Amino acid sequence: MHNPFRRWFGGSGKPAAWAEAADWAEAEGHRFARSRDGSGFVIEPRQDAAGWRLEWGAAQRHYIGGPELRLRAEVGPTGDLQMLVVTRPLMVQLEQQVFEEFTEGNQTRMDDKTPEEMRWLVLYPKVPRAELGLVRERFGALSNFPRAALRWLDGPLSQQLDASLAWLADDQPLVLVVHRGRLTLRCAQAQPLLSALQGALGLFGAARAAAQRVGDEVARGEVDHQRPSTWGAPSAMPQVEARER
């Protein structure tokens, strides 16, 4: 079948690197379109597929240098459940930044300009590395319902995180965030390689299904706010007031 994007990508310049992604989207029956500013693209699934939105383009977080790959989808009612999985080097980087900006700078409030993934590092206890199983060397996790983070990681999500070695380098930051009934994946991606798009979608799908399951468990009262006694003390970082968005 003739690909209408071939003529569009046929010239020189950056869009030529998008042709593989466009071909794949067309073959899968997805919608492929340029982003509004022309610096990236958007892919959305066919009507009969579970709704999600994939974007590649300029990063929306300061800690990702260069372009980023984003995936978003609703996960249904989750109450006030908040969960985060983050690559371990990025977790260390953000903790250090929070400390420098909000203690040495004598600031006592984190406002709307502070991403939730940074605020949560101060507010919530992290899952101990020993509890993270096969992903403990590469990822960290936390939640306002501490046990929820472990339930989220149980099974397919941990397997997909472990398998991300095939498309995510150790120095590429990645975050998975569940907040206000929505799941968001962000990762650094200099070029929209098809292997990375497909790998990220596999990871995202596992994270979404697990988040829906955990959200249901929280709604039924099966997960509480108590931190397991074996987790030890909360973060030693000075506590900073956070104003929710």
- Strand adjacency order, main sheet: 1-2-3-4-9-8-5-7
Radius of gyration: 19 Å
Q: Uncertain spans, ≥5 residues at pLDDT below 50? A: 5-14, 240-245
Largest sheet: 8 strands, antiparallel
Estimated structural class: alpha+beta
Helix percent band = 25-40%
What is the average per-residue confidence, as pLDDT, rounded to a whole number?
A: 85
Number of helices, counting only DSSP H or I runs of 4 residues or more: 7
Tell me, briefly, the overall form: globular
Order of helices and strands: HHEEEEEHEHEHHEEHE
N/C terminus separation = 47 Å
Keywords:
245 residues, alpha+beta, eight-stranded antiparallel beta sheet, two-stranded parallel sheet
List the helices and strands and how they pair.
Blueprint: H1 5-9, H2 19-28, E1 31-34, E2 41-44, E3 53-58, E4 67-74, E5 83-87, H3 88-104, E6 109-110, H4 116-123, E7 139-143, H5 146-153, H6 156-163, E8 174-179, E9 182-188, H7 194-219, E10 241-242
Parallel strand pairs: 6-10
Antiparallel strand pairs: 1-2, 2-3, 3-4, 4-9, 5-7, 5-8, 8-9
Helix pairs in contact: 3-4, 5-7, 6-7
